[in-house]
Amino acid sequence: MAKIDNQPTHPLSMDRLPTRYLNAVLIDDFATTHLGDFLLHPDGTFSQSNGDEDVESTIDGTNRLITRSFQNWHTHLPMQLNARDFSDGLALSDWLAKSIFPTEMRLTPEIAAIGAAAAAAEMCKTGSSFANDMYHFPGAIAPVLESAGLRAIVCGPQTQWPPQEGGDNGEVKRELERLLAKNSPSNLVQYGVATHAIYTCDQEVLLSGRDLAQKYDTTLHIHVSETRKEVADSFEATGLYPVEYLDSIDYFIPEKTVCAHGSWVKKSEMRIMAANQAILAHCPSSNMKLACGGTASLPAYLEAGVDVRLGTDGAASSGSGLDMAHEARMACLVQRHDHWDASALTAANAFKMATKDSKDWAVWNLNDIKMSPRGRANNRHISNLIYNGAQCLDLWVEGQAIRQNGQTLTLDEPAIINELNQAVETYYEGIE
Ligand SMILES: [Zn+2]
Predict the structure, then answer these.
(1) pTM score > 0.90 for this model?
(2) Buried b or exposed e, range 122-148, using 16+ CB within 10 angstroms
(3) 402 located within any domain
(4) Which tens digits make up the pLDDT trace of 206-240?
(5) Domain of 404, in residue numbers
(6) Gap from CA of 318 to ligand 1 centroid (Å)
(7) What pLDDT is recorded for position 192?
(8) CA of 196 to the centre of ligand 1 (A)
(9) For the domain that residue 49 is a member of, what is the CATH number?
(10) CB atoms within 10 A of CB 29
C-alpha cells in the first residue's frame, strides 16, 4: 500500500448517489471477476445491486467491462504540445539539449494549460484517472485537471531553469510555496515538488526541494539513473551512484519520494529506495524510444521490496502518449525480453501495477473486436485489454461521470484539439 495518498475522498462526493450497471462484468482489486448487476459508489467501493436502491442512473452493462482506472506515476502533461515524433532519432542528452530545453524556453502559462488540457483529454480517453506530473507552471496545469474532474499530484519546479518562469529563483520558489499552501486532504489535485534530476539540480536545489516537500508534507518527484551517462557522471563527480548520492545528502523523504526510471541502479541502491519507501515509476516506452539502453529491473526491485508503479513519461519521450494499457504491455514485453523469462511480468500483474491503489472505475467496450475472444469463463479480459488495448466508454471519479458512452463530459475535446494545433504552430516553430 502506497503511503502517498492520491485518493482523497472529496466531501462533495458524499452527496452523490451510486450508479447502477446491469448485466456487466466487473474485475475487482484482487483480479476476481464478477458477473451481474453492480452499484459503483461515490467513495470508490462497489457492491452487488438488488435493483431497488436509489441511484444516480442505471446503465445497461451488457458488453461492458468495469475495472479500476489506470494510475500514471510519471508524466510531463503539457508535453502533449510536442508531437510524438518530436526530434525523433535523438538520444536523451541531445534530445534535451537541442530540442526540449530550447522549446521550453518559449513556454508560457497559457501554452502549458493548453498542453495540460490535451493531456487530460487523452487520459480520459484511455481510462486513466490519476497522474503524478512534473512540469513548469504548475499553477496553470492544476486548474485544468481540477475542472476535468481528474486526480493528480502536480509537481512544480522551484528554480527558473529552464525556462524563464517570470522572475528569479526566489520568485519561482515563492510561487510554488503559494500553491503548496493550497493543498488540502480533500482536494483531488495536490501540488508537489519536482527536482528534475541530479544532473540539472545541484545539491542546494535538491535539498531546497526536499525541505519544501517536507514542510508541506507532499510528494517529492525526481528522475533517477535514467542513463549510463548519468550514473558515470555521478560516480566521477562524487564517487557515488545517483541513489547513493541522493541518500548521502539525505534527500529522500520516507514514503513521499517518487523516482522515475531507475534503469541503471545497483541492488544496494534498490535497498536504499526500499528503506526510504520510495515509489519507482517504471517507464519502459520512454527508455526504449530514447535509447537509454536499460530499463528498471523489475524482479530485483520487487525482491528488494520497492513499490513499483508505471508511468508513461511525456508524450514526446515515450512516443506513445498517455495510454497506460500500452505502457503496461511494453512493461510486460521488456521485462520478459530482458530477463529471458516469460513469467517476469504477466498481463495480470502489469494491470495490477498500472492500477494500484485506484479508487476510480474505467468501463471498457467488450463489443470491441480487440476484446474478443473473451474466454469461456470471461478470463481473457485483462490480457486482451493489456495486450490489445480497448475503447474506454465510461470513467468514474468519486461518483462523477468524467466520460460516458465514449464521450468525455468534463472537457470539450474538439475545442482542445483546435487549440493544441494552433498553439504548436508557434511553440515549436523552427525545431525539427
Ligand atoms: Zn520524465
Answers:
(1) yes
(2) bbbbbbbbbbbbbbbbbbbbbebbbeb
(3) yes
(4) 999 999 999 999 999 999 999 999 999 999 999 99
(5) 11-68+359-408
(6) 9
(7) 98
(8) 8
(9) 2.30.40.10
(10) 14
